[in-house]
Amino acid sequence: MALLSKKDTGLLLDPLADNNPITIQVLGICSALAITAQLKASIVMAVSVMFVLAVGNVVISLMRNIIPSKIRIIVQLVVVAALVIIVDQVLKAFAYELSKTLSVFVGLIITNCIIMGRFEAFALGNGPYRSFLDGIGNAAGYGLILIIVGFFRELLGSGTLLGFKVLGDPIAKTGLYAIGYENNGFMLLSPMALIVVGIIIWVQRSRNSALIEEN
Amino acid sequence: MEHVELFFKSIFIDNMVFATFLGMCSYLAVSKKVSTAVGLGAAVIFVLAVTVPMNWLLDQYVLRPGALKWLGAEYADYDLSFLSFILFIATIATMVQLVEIVVEKFAPALYTSLGIFLPLIAVNCAILGGSLFMQSRDIQTLGLAFNYGLASGIGWFLAILAIAAIREKIRYSNVPAPLRGLGITFIITGLMAIGFMSFGGMLTGGEEKTETTDEVAKVEVQKQDTATEDESLAEVSQEINNK
Fold first, then answer.
1. Which of A33, A68, A153, B187 is most buried, judged by most C-beta within 10 A?
2. Interchain contact B28–A (C-beta under 8 A)
3. Where are stretches of biased composition, namely Basic and acidic residues (chain B) (predicted)?
């Protein structure tokens, strides 16, 4: 017996590509872009969102029959806010430097549209197990884009990955720098995140013409 | 002067959309037509100008370490700042609800024009972001907090208005098919953000961005280099003088 039926696998894998939360559903861009100058921050953000979205989806899904629909937004916000406080406190305790880099953007997971979007679109109408898978899948799709953007911005912007100098030492002129390569400091500035995401969208849509918009 | 400075800084330099990417979701989703963009932008200005001062009061008298002193000396050690997320979002959600009811009662015309956007605003990152930045930037007085909320709202309004106008026009351009819609909007926003960066020097030469350690190290090494160069130059000049 397979642990995941075909439908469940779809829940997990669709958001990675053809139904990606960032490039297709246009959700969760707010906090995605500002923190991608470093790969490490992107990974931490992706993991935090995965925790909040998966647990939140299960909680909302368990409560879906007792939440009056008129106040559901407030209930959802309270659930997310509680989870985000947990993430924030854990980060402050175990990765203080990183939580300073992420600053307000951890708090902004609360209003990350991807979370409210999945609660509204999925968790309110499905059981806890499938909601959990949906949460993991969507957060993974979100994290994937974050990590791709973080990878390119850190590699081209500061010549490092996760803090390791993969392209050589810019000061001692070793590695690529010995032949005159220079870091593109522009990649570290926030506008480049938008342009990198734009290029990802371009690549993805030119590979799959079904995703192209009318105008 | 402080007020004027904060006002322009919040609109142009720390623009919500172009500098911190707040409210991007609704910025992208509602910017297809100028008229709807104006409606949402106005609602954002309004809600930010109300909620930022509210949350400032909350931060000042409930949340920050020692804020509960007004209750009595024994409360002076309390630090409730870990509750800020939940209290801020609760304030925002209730304020949005309240604003909706009041506007519906007293200004039905405005209500019909803002209509669907008001409830959506509770989950707009720009609103919570405004309050969180107010907290982390340590804004000093209630007046400044109001100013900050209002100006951030105006900055967001400008941004969505500009992109909506561009998107209305770009429909007549021949954009490569895979870039149409979302892709080109991202790239245009990036270019606009680069444009807005030039406002950075408007006030005090721009706020100092946290540089990556590499860059800092580089600068330090350069400093050392120049220092050694200076020394060698001094030696050379001394030698010349001696001769």
1. A33
2. yes
3. 207-223
- What residues of B are in contact with residue A181 (Cβ under 8 Å)? none
Integer angstrom CA distances of residue B142 from B132, B137, B146, B208: 15, 14, 6, 26
Please give the full DSSP string across A25-52, using - where no structure is assigned. S--SHHHHHHTTTSHHHHHHHHHHHHHH
Contact B190 A194 (CB under 8 A): yes
Report how far residue B149's alpha carbon sits from residue B129's, in angstroms, rounded to the nearest whole number. 10
**Total domains, chain B:** 1
Assess if residue B192 is contained within a domain: yes
Q: Residue B187 domain-assigned?
A: yes
Chain A CB within 8 Å of residue B176 CB: yes
Substitution target in A108, A187, A196 with the highest count of B β-carbons within 10 Å is A108
ipTM of the complex: 0.78
Q: Report phi then psi at A161, rounded to 5.
A: -135, 125
| CB contact residues (below 8 A), chain B span 37-66, against chain A | none
pLDDT in tens, A181-207: 777 777 777 788 888 888 888 888 888
Condensed to tens digits (0 to 9), the pLDDT of residues B147-183 reads: 999 999 999 999 999 999 998 888 888 888 778 878 8
B124 touches chain A (CB under 8 A): yes
Residue A147 structure tokens? 């990590």
Size of interface A-B (CB pairs under 8 A): 162
Instruction: Give the residue among B62, B39, B47 at the shortest CA–CA distance from B16.
Output: B47
Domain span at B95: 1-201
Contact status, residue B156 vs residue B44, Cβ threshold 8 Å: yes
* A172 close contact with B: CB closer than 8 A: no
A156 close to B (CB below 8 A): no
Whether residues B178 and A215 touch (CB distance < 8 A) is answered with no
Mean per-residue pLDDT over chain B, rounded: 77
On whether residue B231 sits in a domain, the answer given is no
pLDDT for the residue A171: 72
Say whether A170 and B218 touch across the interface (CB within 8 A): yes
Let me know if residue B240 belongs to a domain.
Answer: no
Chain B environment of A38 (Cβ under 8 Å)? 212
pTM score: 0.77
Q: Which amino acid is at B235?
A: E
Residue with tokens 């402080």: B2
For chain A, give every domain's residue range.
Answer: 21-150
List pLDDT tens digits, range B75-99.
777 777 788 888 888 888 888 888 7
